[in-house]
Request: fold
Amino acid sequence: MKITNAKVIVCSPGRNFVTLKIETDQGLHGIGDATLNGRELAVASYLEDHVAPLLLNSDPRRIEDTWQRLYRGAYWRRGPVTMSAIAAVDTALWDIKGKMANMPVYELLGGASRDGVMVYGHANGSGIEHTTDEVGKYVSLGYKAIRVQSGIPGVHGAYGVGRGQMYYEPADGLMPTETIWDTAAYLRFAPKLFERVREVHGSEIHLLHDVHHRLTPIEAGRLGKSLEPFDLFWMEDCTPAENQEGFRLVRNHTTTPLAVGEVFNSIHDCRTLIEEQLIDFIRATVVHAGGITHLRQIANLAALYQVRTGSHGATDLSPACMGAALNFDLWVPNFGIQEYMRHTPETDEVFPHAYSFSDGYLHPGDEPGIGVDIDEDLAAKYPYSAKQLPIARLKDGSMWNW
Ligand code: EZ4
Ligand code: CO
Reply:
């Protein structure tokens, strides 16, 4: 069995996606997501110019060997561009193997460990009352877990407050939108928000919150402590994680569960966080962390330390990533939760998929492979449109973490 073609499809049905499609001499094909929000064309070129020629005529059944060849063979290891490209190849090969076996990928991994994949949706609003109402909408849609983000009085462009309600997407301009961040205002505001949400929606619903790298470790410890009465499922990316040891300080000050890792691309990014039990949920995802093959290693390491998975699932991860992630989630023994931001109807049409939502849970479906395909003719109607993620500055103009 041979790979006869590896092509990169860049399309923008509401937002940009990079998809790798691998074709074989047996007529089977597989797809993988390679989208890196705001830096899409770098991965497209990496795949087209440097990876596709290596794949031609190689055996698509050799998933592990292909992974090792692309990782070791590049000499330059890791990094989001490289690892997203490797992920796309890996996902497409798992998709092909599933189709060869006539089984969904979760069966190849070891079979279902659960009946469905608990997901969390994103509620956001302009202030406390609006956000609390939005939480109510997700409750009535059947969600068991909801991420809560809110505009803050006096803060211009707080993280996570979108223009649309169901289809929040931050990458919006040819040049980055500038937001202004105010830590003190945020730390005063956040406990009031969660107090109100609990008051209105009760104690059963799981509530999550994304700090989006805005705090220092000691500030994060303080926030976690102030949110303890409101029983969060997790506090996400409370401080940047390049310095993994920094989380010791957060951990020393709060029992609010911690989730980190949507920007990680390798097991080495989270080894200390996991081995020292500094986090509770690892958010690495199929597309940005080297595919199913590498994510499985991360999850296995995490299992030793009772760290559970909670993969990133924002709309900039395409349905091809979501299909692969859901197959992974249904199998992975130490599953925690899966993020799920709904794609626009245009995106759903370009990527026909077997996964479906019911009563707070997603199921990958039982199509062979990852259960997601791409309609190339339709994709061609939505050409690439350059967009960048926003940036954040402090009031005095200093750059901060968006
Ligand atoms: O800002 O995926 O938890 N979700 C997130 C996302 C990220 C975007 C960046 O492209 O933090 O919404
Ligand atoms: Co996040």
Q: What stands out?
A: DSSP finds 13 helices and 16 strands in the chain. The chain has a mean pLDDT of 97. Residues 3-103 form a domain with the Enolase-like; domain 1 fold (CATH 3.30.390.10).
